What we know:
By secondary structure, the chain is α+β, with helices and mostly antiparallel strands. It has helices at 130-138, 150-165, 179-190, 198-204, 209-220, 224-241, 246-252, 258-269, 273-276, and strands at residues 12-14, 30-37, 41-46, 51-65, 68-72, 76-80, 86-101, 124-127, 168-169, 173-174. The chain folds into two domains: 12-169, Jelly Rolls (Sandwich); 178-276, Orthogonal Bundle (Arc Repressor Mutant, subunit A), CATH 1.10.10.
Amino acid sequence: MARPAPADRHRASVPPVDPNQFTPTREHPVRAKSRKLQADTRIDPHQHPWAQVAFSMTGVIRLTAGRGSYIVPPSRAVWIPPGVEHVVSVLEDAELRTIYLFQDEHHCGPDGPAAPDSPWRECRVLEVSSLMRELVMQLTVEPGERAPTDREFHLSMLVLDELRRAQPVPLGVDLPHDKRLLALCEAVIDDPSRWSTLDEWARSIGASPRTVARLFRSELGSTFLQWRQQVLLSKALAMAARKLPMAVISAELGYASPSAFTAMVRRSVGAPPSRFFS
């Protein structure tokens, strides 16, 4: 039996902070800003001519950028290349810390060449080390132009070095162009355990299971099951950040037992939940 749809919640929409107040320059290559946001807040779509890394220092956010959606707990960050439009949705009260990176024609990452196949040209989820977290917290978040201090310069160089070392995490879900499939995908992201089968999800958008399966293959290059597993992993990561027991996480995501959930995590990322969610 289908679970009842979650009640519609009012999502307050707010404009982004004027990014020109935090423009990175060659002399000041890393700029930081901080913003506290309440749950169910949505920052309007926007983009920057420079790269950015979005951290949730507390709470959990969902960041939609390009053709992907990423759930960001405090243990992870999202890299967004220059010029990529993105939207931030706050899932629970959060302190959002953002760093902007100066870019020129020779760089597309923290120190990478502007090669067409550089992984820094795409959005990606990164691990956040304890050192990275502390460095970001120490960066000045005052707006406006100012002369960089020696301390700020050294902090910036360490931030860039930590970014180069940060390990990518196989998280994030691709989003399609097709409007029907996009509606289905967004519904799954909002409540992935509402239904368990493709037939039920297909009926929710008035399409046949065969049509939906074909759209997943042609638009996202995966099966519905593979795509939904990525959603479940992202949701589980956010729940683990709140220190919820694995039994609670597996039950909330619709698994019959913690062992069934553990098997899914192992198949997806090659590591047990205790390591992947640490």
